[in-house]
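lol forgot to send this yesterday, sorry. struct tokens for the thing we talked abt
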């Protein structure tokens, strides 16, 4: 564990807590993409299958349980909660997210480190996580009405991945034989997708104006 990994994990955890705070306390999911949340639930479900038979550390297990539980809880809130679901903007959240699944699965079957069931699913989760934010970004561009908590949620998600890139760089220079090029490429693509959002986020913060993304 190094400072970049810890900071990345805490930033990721903060993003989830911010979103849950918005949904649970305000009883609103306005501006939140159900499509992105469903993709993240699938990402964690396929990545953390080893939680039942591969103990690494108490910290590792707790973090996995938190992300699994929170991702499915958010999906449940948006789909089933009698108050929260009323604020879901289904007409705007129309990104065909299911079309992301097949390319990611095919890519995982063709390009992986080891052709085993566990490794293919783990690689699939990497590819899917890289593009899972797309429905959310598209929704924010369409609505152009981004409240503070939603903006902070997306910013923290992007910051978490950027910190993980620093973690990989640190481990590459400090650990022998630390080479995971599939993880690096997928993570870099994911971070680049946030580039436009980061620009407008910092512009709104600098000028003290409401965050808006261009259509």
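and heres what i got for the seq, position by position
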């Amino acid at each position: 564990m190094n400072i970049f990994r810890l900071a990345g994990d805490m930033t990721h955890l903060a993003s989830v807590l911010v979103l849950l705070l918005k949904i649970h306390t305000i009883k609103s999911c306005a501006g939140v993409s159900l499509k992105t949340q469903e993709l993240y639930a699938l990402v964690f479900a396929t990545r953390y299958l080893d939680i039942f038979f591969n103990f690494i550390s108490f910290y590792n297990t707790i973090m996995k349980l938190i992300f699994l539980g929170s991702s499915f809880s958010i999906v449940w809130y948006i789909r089933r909660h009698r108050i929260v679901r009323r604020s879901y903007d289904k007409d705007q959240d129309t990104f065909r997210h299911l079309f992301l699944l097949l390319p990611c699965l095919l890519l995982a079957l063709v390009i992986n480190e080891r052709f085993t069931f566990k490794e293919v699913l783990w690689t699939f989760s990497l590819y899917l996580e890289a593009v899972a934010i797309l429905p959310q970004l598209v929704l924010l561009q369409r609505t152009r009405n981004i409240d503070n908590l939603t903006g902070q949620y997306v910013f923290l998600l992007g910051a978490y991945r950027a910190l993980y890139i620093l973690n990989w760089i640190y481990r590459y220079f400090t650990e022998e034989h630390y080479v995971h090029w599939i993880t690096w490429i997928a993570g870099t693509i994911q971070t680049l997708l946030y580039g436009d959002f980061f620009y407008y986020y910092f512009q709104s913060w600098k000028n003290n104006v409401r965050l808006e993304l261009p259509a």
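The mean pLDDT is 93. anyway ping me if u want another try
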